[in-house]
Write a structure and sequence with these properties.
The structure is a single chain. The protein is an alpha/beta fold. Helix content is about 35%, strand content about 15%. The protein has 13 helices and 13 strands. An eight-stranded parallel sheet has the order 3-11-10-8-7-6-5-4. A three-stranded antiparallel sheet has the order 9-13-12, with no helix packed on it. Helix 5 runs parallel beside helix 7. The longest helix has 20 residues. It is globular.
Length: about 350
């Protein structure tokens, strides 16, 4: 088995070319991100309702989240042993700009941003050393980002993350596309995105690594994309069933217990399709609206009065282990989990 090359994002060098995908709410915080960074990968905290454990979260969710960004990054640094840390911030987050500025102020190494195109991320990050990586799912979206960032900010992404249709959580595809994933021939799109990024990088004499996400579970999966020209992979689902993952043990057990047919495409209350484990909660949600209390100010696209259930409540229940009253986001390969493992074992497999 040949050794992999490090993943270089500017002056950041990850010995193992693996970014651990950001998972909210609270699934990837300081424990998981710190452990991945310590083992030579890039550990990523999700800022989605990151302050859900703060005492004032119900009264002031935005304030609690902005405070928690700093405290969780600090805690992750203590575990990371000098390793690389990133945050995942969704463009659709209310007060997105403030979240970006809080992460930059806390000295984060890398911001990964999707769930919409992060058009003005360079302006928000300013002159900070923080590296910026947009998430794209199509050639069109990467072209828009490359052109706009260069024209308006004289800047190119430091890395580009391609998120494919096998990813977990919210997906950048139409529901119809997700009903026939094989028919998408998505590797063709991946190749076209890699070629587009390489062309822009060569034109400006820069190096822009492309990182593939969605459906990566084994080293073999990674090698497939490295051979296509990717510089690394982003992987989330595999890290859920680790001892170091920040989620409750009951949440991890749902992955271990899941069968392939339990993993379904759902319509999220925020208007995007997503991938999750079919459970009693999702069955109830199909039958009608699940009552909820006040809004937690999470996603700008959520229509509070019409929403079938509160996504924040459902995801907090998940991370706390109340799995029958929860939205259990997962990637397409969640059913492949059979046991808990240590982050170190996974990173050794991918090194």
């Amino acid at each position: 088995m040949k050794e992999t090359k490090p993943l270089k994002i500017g002056d950041l060098v990850a010995r193992v070319p693996v970014i651990q995908g950001g998972m909210g709410v609270g699934v990837s915080l300081s424990s998981l991100a710190g452990a991945v960074a310590a083992e030579g990968g890039i550990g990523v905290l999700s800022t989605a309702q990151i302050g859900y454990r703060e005492p004032d979260f119900d009264k002031d969710p935005i304030g609690a989240n902005l405070r928690a960004i700093g405290t969780e990054i600090k805690k992750a640094r203590q575990i990371a042993k000098g390793g690389i840390l990133g945050v995942n911030i969704m463009v659709a987050t209310r007060k997105y700009e403030e979240y970006v500025k809080a992460a930059v102020a806390a000295g984060i190494d890398l911001i990964i941003s999707g769930a919409g195109l992060p058009m003005d991320l360079p302006k928000l990050a300013g002159a900070a050393k923080t590296k910026l990586a947009p998430i794209v799912s199509s050639v069109k979206s990467v072209q828009v980002i490359l052109r706009y960032w260069w024209k308006k900010y004289n800047r190119l992404p430091d890395a580009v993350v391609i998120e494919g249709p096998l990813a977990g959580g919210h997906l950048g595809f139409h529901k119809e596309q997700l009903q026939d994933i094989e028919g998408l021939h998505y590797d063709n799109e991946v190749q076209a995105i890699i070629d587009q990024v390489n062309e822009a990088a060569a034109e400006h004499d820069k190096n822009i690594p492309v990182v593939m996400a969605g459906g990566i579970y084994t080293r073999e999966d990674m090698e497939h994309y490295l051979e296509m020209g990717a510089s690394g992979v982003q992987m989330a689902t595999r890290f859920v069933t680790t001892y170091e993952c920040d989620a409750d043990e009951a949440y991890k057990q749902t992955y271990i217990d899941a069968k392939k047919e339990d993993i379904v495409i759902v319509q999220s209350p925020v208007g995007m399709p997503g991938r999750a484990i079919l459970n009693p909660f999702m069955r109830r949600a199909k039958e009608g609206q699940i009552p909820h209390e006040k809004c937690h100010l999470c996603i700008s696209t959520c229509k509070v009065t019409d929403t079938p259930y509160c996504i924040t409540d459902a995801l907090i229940n998940a991370v706390k282990g109340k799995v029958n009253d929860a939205l259990l986001f997962c990637g397409a390969n969640a059913y492949r989990a059979t046991h808990l493992e240590h982050v170190k074992e996974i990173m050794e497999e991918f090194a």
